[in-house]
UniProtKB/TrEMBL annotation:
<protein>
    <recommendedName>
        <fullName>Translation initiation factor IF-2</fullName>
    </recommendedName>
</protein>
<dbReference type="GO" id="GO:0003743">
    <property type="term" value="F:translation initiation factor activity"/>
</dbReference>
<comment type="function">
    <text>One of the essential components for the initiation of protein synthesis. Protects formylmethionyl-tRNA from spontaneous hydrolysis and promotes its binding to the 30S ribosomal subunits. Also involved in the hydrolysis of GTP during the formation of the 70S ribosomal complex.</text>
</comment>
<keyword id="KW-0648">Protein biosynthesis</keyword>
<comment type="similarity">
    <text>Belongs to the TRAFAC class translation factor GTPase superfamily. Classic translation factor GTPase family. IF-2 subfamily.</text>
</comment>
<feature type="binding site">
    <location>
        <begin position="120"/>
        <end position="124"/>
    </location>
    <ligand>
        <name>GTP</name>
    </ligand>
</feature>
<feature type="binding site">
    <location>
        <begin position="174"/>
        <end position="177"/>
    </location>
    <ligand>
        <name>GTP</name>
    </ligand>
</feature>
<dbReference type="GO" id="GO:0003924">
    <property type="term" value="F:GTPase activity"/>
</dbReference>
<keyword id="KW-0547">Nucleotide-binding</keyword>
<keyword id="KW-0342">GTP-binding</keyword>
<feature type="binding site">
    <location>
        <begin position="74"/>
        <end position="81"/>
    </location>
    <ligand>
        <name>GTP</name>
    </ligand>
</feature>
<dbReference type="GO" id="GO:0005829">
    <property type="term" value="C:cytosol"/>
</dbReference>
<keyword id="KW-0396">Initiation factor</keyword>
<feature type="domain" description="Tr-type G">
    <location>
        <begin position="65"/>
        <end position="239"/>
    </location>
</feature>
<dbReference type="GO" id="GO:0005525">
    <property type="term" value="F:GTP binding"/>
</dbReference>
<keyword id="KW-0963">Cytoplasm</keyword>
<keyword id="KW-0175">Coiled coil</keyword>
Amino acid sequence: KIIKDHFMRGIILRPAQGVNLEEARQIAAQYGWNIELKEEKISDPIEALKEKFDELYKDESKLVQRPPVVTVMGHVDHGKTTLLDRIRKTTVAEKEVGGITQSIGAYQAEIDGKKITFIDTPGHEAFTEMRARGAQATDIVVLVVAADDGVMPQTIEAFNHAKTANVPIIVAINKIDKPNANIDLTKQQLASKLGLVPEDWGGDTIVVPISAKMGKGIDELLEMILLVAEMSEIKCIPQGNARGVIIESELDKGVGPLATAIIKDGIIKPGDYIVAGSTHGKVRALRDEKGRKVKNAGPSDPVQIIGFEEVPDMHEILYVVDSLDQAREISAFVKERQKKERMVKGKKHVRLEEFMRI
Ligand code: GDP
Ligand code: MG
C-alpha cells in the first residue's frame, strides 16, 4: 500500500532499496505512526556515498551552475532524431581530424559560449529507472509534437514520465513546414489532453514552433532551453570525486567494457577508481563524443569511460572513490545484494508495470 500510495504521487519506492530513517519517519507520519530508532547500522555503502553528496549539497555557497542536460522525447516519427541531428549540425563544431565521427548517446552543443548537453535516446523507462536510483540524468525535457499529427499516445507517455520526474518541459511543435500542419489544433490538444497551456494562451508552458527539417525555430528553441536552465538553478559540486549516470554501456571488442556517462558532480580523470553498481575498475582512458581522448570530464559532460572490469548496467550511478579496495568492496556488496534480490523476486528489476499492478 505504501508503495502504491507513493507511486500515485510520483515517488517510486523499491522494496529492496529500503528507506533511510528520515524517509521512514516521513512515511510513517502519513499513516499516523511514529518511528523509533533502536539500533543504527550503516549497511549500504552506496547510500553512504549518496549521503556524502547530500551533505555537500547543503552548503549552497559551494554549488555552481552547470549546463543543462536535455532529453528529447515524443511520439515515434514526430521528429526527435531529425531535431537532434539538426542541433548537432548547427552547434557542434566539427574539429576532428581524419573525419571519423564516433557517435555516442550524447553530445554537447554550444550557443554563444553556453553549453547544452543533449542525450539521444534514453527511452521512457530510463527516466523512471534512473530516478529510482536517486540520480536524474535529465534536467529539461523537450517534448516534440508533430503539427500534422498532434498529441499521440507516446506524447502522453513521455509527458507523464517527465512529470513524474518533476522535470521542466518545453514543447517543440515540429513539422510546421508541412501544408497540413495545424499549430493551433496542436496547442489545443496540449492544453486539453496534457494540461500544458501555452504561454501565448495565458498558460505557463513554453511552446516553440519549429521545423527540424528546414532548420526553422531551432535558435528560439535553444534560447528557451537556456532560459529554462537559468531559471531552474541546475547546480553541481564542481570539484572533487565525480558522480555521474551511466547512459550507455557495451562490451567493445577492442577496449573491453565501455560506458558512456553524464558527469553530474566533480571531475573524473584517468587513474580514478570507479564503481557503478556491481562493477568497479580504474579509469584507463576517457573519450569525448567524437572519440577523442580527454584528460578529464566535469559536470554535464558526456564522457566515454574505459576501465570497468565488467560492463556496468545502464542507468546505474557512477561514483569515483578513493581507492581500488573501496571500489571493489562496494561493487561486491552490490553484487551480493542483487543476488539476494534475484532470489527473492526471481528477476533483476521491478518494472514500472509491476508497480501498476500492485
Ligand atoms: P523520430 O521517430 O521522432 O525520431 O522521428 P524522425 O526524426 O525519424 O522523423 C520522422 C520523419 O519525419 C522523417 O521522415 C523526417 O524526415 C520527418 N521530419 C522530421 N522533422 C520534420 C520537419 O520538421 N518537417 C517535415 N516535413 N518532416 C520532418
Ligand atoms: Mg528517432
